[in-house]
Design the sequence.
């Protein structure tokens, strides 16, 4: 779609702020008003629309995309979306450790154990680490505690949380980031620890680097989205 507007403005609305293009409200793909919950996020989304060139490129408007997801996909059945996202807690990346070499095991423990400790202290979710990649069932009470933590989040919080969970493979790490209990760069490093180890010892794979750049873009956009809520 070609750009057809000249002015972008924010207008107060029930529940937040709407983005208007030349006086007309922007609508989501589901035809709902693009209503943002607070001025900070509304300003950032409006800035994406101001920055559009001759044609709209959705990839250059990640905050708008996440807001659309919150409104169209998540808000209609927040509980069902939260339940699906919470399933990541049953196979969290942080629980699956290498059985060798020792140096990698120590790196994983140093990076991942504090996050698991945080989840235990914060939610009472005592997840159990294991070695290898074979699935190990986690204590039901721990899985339930994490599910309750996810269920308590708003549609906009879930919209930002979801790509972080899928990119990192860790519900625990995503929740720690959401609650600002961990730095985004530390979470990114923790999620990519195994990949970085392989690169150190065997060199970089150009295709893997390209895929990583795409994941990093999704991750960074989601982090920004959550920080603006």
Sequence:
């Amino acid at each position: 779609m070609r750009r057809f507007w000249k002015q972008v403005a924010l207008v107060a609305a029930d529940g937040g702020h709407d983005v208007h293009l030349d006086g007309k409200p922007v609508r989501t793909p589901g035809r709902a008003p693009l209503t943002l919950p607070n001025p900070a996020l509304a300003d950032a989304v409006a800035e994406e629309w101001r920055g559009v060139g001759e044609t709209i490129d959705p990839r250059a408007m990640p905050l708008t995309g996440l807001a659309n997801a919150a409104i169209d996909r998540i808000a209609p059945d927040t509980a069902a979306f939260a339940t699906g996202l919470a399933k990541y807690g049953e196979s969290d990346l942080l629980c699956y450790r290498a059985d060798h070499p020792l140096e990698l095991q120590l790196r994983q423990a140093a990076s991942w154990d504090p996050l698991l400790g945080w989840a235990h202290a914060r939610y009472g979710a005592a997840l159990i680490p294991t070695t290898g990649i074979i699935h190990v069932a986690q204590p039901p009470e721990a899985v339930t505690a994490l599910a309750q933590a996810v269920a308590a989040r708003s549609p906009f919080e879930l919209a930002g949380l979801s790509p972080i969970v899928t990119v990192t493979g860790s519900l625990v790490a995503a929740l720690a980031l959401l609650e600002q209990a961990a730095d985004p760069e530390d979470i990114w490093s923790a999620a990519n620890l195994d990949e970085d180890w392989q690169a150190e010892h065997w060199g970089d794979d150009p295709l893997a680097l390209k895929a990583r750049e795409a994941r990093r873009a999704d991750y960074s956009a989601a982090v920004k989205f959550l920080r603006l809520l």
Summary: The CA atoms of residues 52 and 143 lie 43 Å apart. The two ends are 29 Å apart (CA to CA).
